[in-house]
Amino acid sequence: MSSVPVNNNPNRSNAQSKIGPTEFIILMAVLMSVMALAIDAMLPALDLIGLSLGVENPNDNQLIISTLFLGMALGLMIYGPISDSYGRKVTLYLGVAIFLVGDLISLLSNDFTLMIIGRLLQGFGAAACRVITVAMIRDRFDGPKMAKVMSLIMMVFIMVPVLAPSIGQAILLFASWRAIFLLLLAYALLGAIWLHFRQPETLPKENRLPFSLKVIAQGISETIRHPQSRTYTISAGIMFGAFVGYLSSSQQILQIQYELGNTFSLYFGFLALAIGIASFANSKLVMLIAMEKLCVMALCTISMLSLLFFFYAKSHAGHPPLIALMSYLSLSFFCMGILFGNFNTLALHPLGHIAGVATSVISTLQTLLSVAVGFMVGQAYDGGVLPLVEGFLGCSAVTLLLMAYVLRLNKYQLSSQP
Fold first, then answer.
1. Max CA separation in the chain (angstroms)
2. Fewer CB near the terminus (10 Å): N or C of the chain?
3. In whole angstroms, what is the distance from residue 211 CA to residue 247 CA?
């Protein structure tokens, strides 16, 4: 990692060079992973939290996950413009402070409503960690250097969903579920303190822009009106929604239905690795194959796999052998790993002139849609895997139709040009 060069742009503060590239990469990965840790470390404890807070319907425990995404969706839109006006660090401090308040509410909650309010605030605050870290990376690096740094950060970041459930499970061996919220509090606070003492502000005052609701409104309008951006944003939201449905019901499926107990975290981590491997593979494949073709191939694979596995699972009354389920999910998640990065790139491609605002708009719309889709997929859980497989099949089929539309539209526009 230490070989990554620092961007020595003379317009940027020389103080930025005081933190080395390796430390910068690790710090950004830590801040980015606040949201992932808040999701994945909590998975082994969902059933215990529900029992402790008097939840009657086990499917309602999924709200502990889905409301976090809803809070993040509400926060993604505002932090980028605020940081452009007031600086990256102060905006990130604001987000972390909101996250900590939400974490304390969840930690001290004695009923499920308070728990959900706390989780909503956690997601709203954690959105700053996602938005601001990317902005800080963009401030410090550009072009191929930024791409290289982002790849290295994602290599560190992927370890969180792999290890977090095991960490949460280990905590439950010695303490109650409330101790996991103490871990989240300490982790977010550590990241903010590390940022404060080691990383200087990356956006000089002379480069800051006045806060403007008009600019945000124009960005929203242009993003929504552009057919390519709109279609790929919806596509990403639908497919990520299928994944949110899995996240919401994974504890019920793996830990309860398949009676994995404390080993649930190991199986969950294995499946998370499939997405990490796909992200690495995609970085190589996009240099050889067009992104649109990769997306079509991935969607066709998920659709065919899901269709075949649906009939296979149905022949086993919704409870196929664990090895078959893990194989199906691993291949599906590998394909999703191909989709996630490419859909975002394709959605943003025609909006380079408003990249900052467009990124916030696209992320917000995707997350809101994914929460709605994921809620429906997760709440359909009935003790078997068929609802999840149906969700994957339906989402991939609809997304294929959307891609057919946008590819046909692009072909028509190209052929009609003089």
1. 70
2. C
3. 36
Question: pTM (2 decimals)?
Answer: 0.79
Angle between helices 88-108 and 178-198 (to 10 degrees): 160
What does the mean pLDDT of the chain come to?
Answer: 85
**Residue 351 DSSP label:** G
Q: How many domains does the chain have?
A: 2
In a domain, 2, yes or no: no
215 and 345 Cβ atoms separated by less than 8 Å: no
Whole-number Cα distances in Å, 257 to 45, 132, 251, 321: 15, 39, 9, 11
Q: How many whole angstroms separate alpha carbon 97 and alpha carbon 91?
A: 10
Q: Structural domain of residue 267, as residue ranges?
A: 212-418
Q: Within a 13 Å sphere around the CA of 95, how many CA atoms are in the beta-carbon half?
A: 35
What is the per-residue pLDDT across 355-395, written as a single tens digit (0 to 9) for each?
A: 556 777 888 888 889 989 999 999 999 999 999 999 999 99
- Cα distance between residue 24 and residue 149, in whole Å: 9
| First-residue to last-residue Cα distance in the chain | 48
Residue 206 belongs to domain with CATH number: 1.20.1250.20
Last residue in a domain, options 150, 178, 210: 210
Distance CA 228, CA 406 (A): 6
pLDDT band (50, 70, 90) for residue 6: very low
The answer to whether residue 27 scores a pLDDT higher than 60 is yes
